[in-house]
Amino acid sequence: MTVVGPFGLSVRDQALEADVQNGLSAVEAGLLDATKSEVPFITEAAQHLVRAGGKRFRPLLVMLAAQFGDPYAPGIVPSAVVVELTHLATLYHDDVMDEADVRRGVPSANARWGNSVAVLTGDFLFARASHILADLGPEAVRIQAEAFERLVTGQILETAGPRDGRDPVDHYLDVIAGKTGSLIAVSGRFGAMMSGADERVVDILTQYGERLGVAFQLADDVLDIASDSHESGKTPGTDLREGIPTLPVLLLRARAEATGDPGDLALVELLDGDLTDDARHGEALRLLRLHPALEQARRDTVRYAEEARAVLAPLPECYARAALEELCDAVVHRAG
Fold first, then answer.
1. Which ranges of the chain does DSSP label H, i.e. alpha helix?
2. Which of these, 148, 157, 101, 154, lies nearest to 125 by C-alpha position?
3. In 3D, which of 317, 323, 78 has the Cα closest to residue 190?
4. For labelling, which of 111, 154, 190, 275 has a CA lying 20 to 30 Å from the CA of 201?
5. Is the pLDDT of residue 230 over 80?
6. 200-228 in b/e burial notation, b at 16+ Cβ within 10 A?
7. d(Cα 211, Cα 213) in Å, to the nearest integer?
8. Per-residue pLDDT at 4
9. DSSP labels for 213-260?
10. Three-state DSSP class for 90?
11. Each residue's pLDDT tens digit, 176-221
12. What pLDDT does 123 receive?
């Protein structure tokens, strides 16, 4: 059993391990190539997060999904580069919106160069992803366009908030299905599709990616509260400080509204106050780490990961399927 990639997936078969490792190495080279510009400053800014590392979760899923067809098909590595470039571009934009100072353990692009450079660098990465995508055919372009529309819609829905009468938790799950689930679903779909896998297999791996993507984001929600910066690579409580709703906070609010518990109401009042104050922010983090809402968010993470695992049942038993199942465990492990 060997650990593969920064995400820490263990693989039980040497041939599969070699395929995945070689694929991820090719993706890394492709990312560096795609982020080069004739303008040195653009190269520096565009490669800032590439060189900072990352889990490469989406390319890993592309490589594993490709095992259900021809894993050496020519479109696999470029499609993995496309999904990772798209993901990286959204990080540049997210950090501007969140006013984040740290990303992947290094200063965020907006903290280093300002918001304008960060936004334009994200746009540059989207452009480079589109350039690669054009060589993969019109169907790939359509799939990516639909996923990108869902991603942006999810971000807008998060900004707008739930409409009157809509359950905030249900609204939030729709948001993250768009913001995170859509691109991870495309990772599974591209890997299977580019490898020439059967359409039924493509559909299964798309559904798997969607559910795993939701679990992945819920694990991030837990980490934003429960982890330190060494574990997560970004400042703890960033979403909390910016007032961005995450599942633990939404569950706390629902519980406070339903029970009227004085401690819950006091914590909600603290969260609604000025969390730019470090002392208040630290106290809010401390109390949330002790609150049952955090454990409920962990249980919801497990539920979505188990749904993803269940989707895989029709696939033939093989090392690639076992690795996809273990990926569900790895996502849950991140949430503690």
1. 14-34, 40-46, 48-51, 57-65, 76-98, 109-113, 115-134, 138-160, 168-176, 182-194, 199-226, 229-232, 238-241, 247-259, 262-271, 278-290, 292-311, 319-334
2. 148
3. 78
4. 154
5. no
6. ebbbbbbbbbbbbbbbbbbbbbbbbbbbe
7. 5
8. 61
9. HHHHHHHHHHHHHH--HHHHSS-TTHHHHTT---HHHHHHHHHHHHH-
10. helix
11. 999 999 999 999 999 999 999 999 999 999 999 999 999 999 999 9
12. 94
Which residues are registered as beta bridge partners of 4? Answer: 9
Q: Which residue has the tokens 């791996």?
A: 205
- Residue 115: pLDDT above 90? no
Say which residue the tokens 């359509």 belong to: 142
Which residue type does 307 have?
A: E
In this structure, what DSSP letter does residue 9 have? E
Cβ within 8 Å of residue 103, ≥6 positions away: 49, 52, 91, 95, 109, 233, 234
Q: Is the pLDDT of residue 229 over 60?
A: no
63 neighbors 18 (Cβ within 8 angstroms): no
Among 205, 207, 168, 170, CA closest to 65: 205
pLDDT of residue 8: 59
**Left if phi > 0, otherwise alpha if psi is -120 to 50, otherwise beta: which for 196?**
left
90, 29, 33, 103: which is closest to 59 by C-alpha? 29
